[in-house]
Design brief:
By secondary structure, the chain is α/β, with parallel strands linked by helices. It is about 25% helix and about 25% strand. The protein is built from 7 helices and 9 strands, in the order H-H-E-H-E-H-E-E-E-E-H-E-H-E-H-E. It has a 9-stranded mixed beta sheet with strand order 3-4-5-2-1-6-7-9-8. The protein is globular and about 45 Å long. The termini are far apart.
């Protein structure tokens, strides 16, 4: 993952990936996972996602991980929170009222002490990583999540597919190959969203789908 690429994106406010109204798949499918209220939910590469606020409002503890200090500051400012800050290993830990964000490199996550993390919400982490880094990311999740963890994974897949991301195209087959060892993977929905994404059409994409997957403990 090119750290400077993402820091420059935030510095230039080129954050088209941010969804101010939150993600509709989270709002539709999270209740189906039956994650107990009070569970800590890991949100990798969280940016200033309003989805963290949505989860917190429903009684979950939120643990985000984000590289950009600008993004972390914006999250707390936009929600009227005064975070405490402390250095913890390679991270700066920001926290307020049940929402914590570890600011630093996601791949350093296994080097710090974490609470028991029984849930995952990934809307824009897997698809932000080139193919060579995705197995490393999934291995990191295995080490940070509890064996009983469950989660919601949201991906994009498009044609023609290439390495011109991010966001990168990640197929259902790849999701099952990456996560199938540790989770029971279920496709919840896959929707054609090309009409809603003119920038993808301008890049010559003929197909664009957004998909949501349930990641459940293996049976």
């Amino acid at each position: 993952m090119d750290k400077n690429f993402w820091l420059e994106k935030w510095a230039r406010s080129e954050i088209g990936f941010h969804e101010p109204g939150g993600n509709r798949f989270l709002q539709r499918w999270w209740p189906e996972l039956a994650v107990p209220v009070g569970t800590t939910v890991l949100v990798p590469l969280c940016g200033k996602s309003t989805d963290m606020w949505w989860l917190w409002q429903r009684g979950y503890r939120v643990l985000g991980v984000e590289l950009s200090e600008q993004a972390v500051q914006a999250f707390f400012q936009e929600h009227g929170l005064e975070p405490r800050r402390e250095r913890e290993g390679p991270f700066t830990r920001w926290g307020a009222d049940g929402v914590e964000i570890l600011q630093g490199d996601l791949f350093d996550l296994a080097t710090v002490e974490l609470p028991i993390v029984d849930a995952l919400y990934d809307r824009a982490a897997l698809i932000a990583l080139p193919a060579r880094e995705r197995p490393r990311y999934v291995d990191l999740l295995r080490r940070c999540l509890s064996p009983r963890a469950r989660g919601l994974l949201i991906t994009l897949d498009y044609l023609p597919a290439d390495e011109a991301g991010p966001p990168y195209s990640v197929t259902e087959q790849e999701v099952r190959g990456l996560f199938g060892v540790s989770f029971s993977v279920g496709l919840l929905t896959r929707e054609d969203v090309l009409a809603d994404n003119p920038k993808f059409r301008e890049r010559g994409r003929r197909e664009l789908h957004e998909a949501a997957f349930a990641l459940l403990p293996p049976t």
